[in-house]
Amino acid sequence: MSVRQAIGRRVARFLSEPREGAVRIPTSSREKLAATLQKGDVLLVEGTSLFAAAIKYLTQSTWSHSALYVGDALGGEDPHMFVEADINEGVRMVPLSQFWDLHSRICRPVGLSGDERDRVIAYAAERIGHQYDMKNILDLARYLFPTPPVPRRWRRQLLAIGSGDPTRAICSSLIAQAFQHINYPILPELYLEGAPEDEKASAEYREWLHIRHHSLYAPRDFDVSPYFEIVKPVLKQGFSHQSLDWADTQRLKTLELEGPHLPA
């Protein structure tokens, strides 16, 4: 292991530790999340680590991590499995218990055939064992001590300052490559004649042009993509506001003492 890799692993372990005082707020129960997920779904989560804080800052988004739902297609310890790129363990399979108590969002690709879903999953599965891009970790770490103001037009590029090694991965680029493998779009491709004169619009123009490369994708891109449906487990599994049992003031004080509760 090189000195750079050793330093990268130490930094990765530090950045993956939960922030002090960070609150985990799940938006649905584990049962409803499990019942709603379909193979090929992308699960976005709001992490609580220092690394997650850097991702959320640079992308100006709630979401810091993404994982591909594969269900029982690859076996595993649980029928509800994901493939993800973890900063410490690299590309691996993890069960639903890894995410169910976090704020999350299901992004579902629309119109895929069963064969296309299988090909997306197979692409990700072939990369299990690949390592996380440590150069990317070291670059991101600079924006946490303390977090400096970074111009909006540069933030996206800062997420892609990796080694370029095909055996290295970051969470969103892995999933982006899997969908690009079957020619499924994530963000639309725009053709504009010349850059807009307005500075803000020009920054957006450059970002849209650059976003086509898989290394520049971030978790939020699956959220804003016009080709991925947002699926909310509480609504999908049946919801009626008339069935809610509202607590009185005294009961609310008791709940606050006990901690946050899962949605019904």
Q: Which overall shape is indicated by the principal axes computed on the Cα atoms? A: globular
> Major beta sheet, specifics?
6 strands, antiparallel
Residue-averaged pLDDT: 76
Q: Please give the share of residues in helix.
A: 25-40%
Structural features, described:
- About 35% of the residues lie in helices and about 15% in strands.
- With about 260 residues, the chain is of the alpha+beta class.
- A six-stranded antiparallel sheet has the order 4-3-2-1-5-8. It has a two-stranded parallel sheet with strand order 6-7.
- A hairpin with a 3-residue loop joins strand 3 and strand 4 (about 90-95).
- Helix 1 packs across helix 5 (about 135-140) and helix 4 crosses helix 7.
- The radius of gyration is 19 Å and the shape is globular.
Quick description:
The chain is built from eleven helices and eight strands. The chain has 264 residues and is α+β, with helices and mostly antiparallel strands.
Keywords for this structure?
264 residues; alpha+beta; 6-stranded antiparallel β-sheet; two-stranded parallel sheet; 8 strands; 37% helix; globular
How do the helices and strands line up, and which of them pair or pack?
Blueprint: H1 3-15, H2 30-36, E1 42-45, H3 50-59, E2 65-71, E3 81-86, E4 90-95, E5 104-109, H4 114-125, E6 131-132, H5 134-141, H6 152-158, E7 168-169, H7 171-180, H8 199-210, H9 220-224, E8 228-231, H10 233-236, H11 249-258
Parallel strand pairs: 6-7
Antiparallel strand pairs: 1-2, 1-5, 2-3, 3-4, 5-8
Helix pairs in contact: 1-5, 4-7
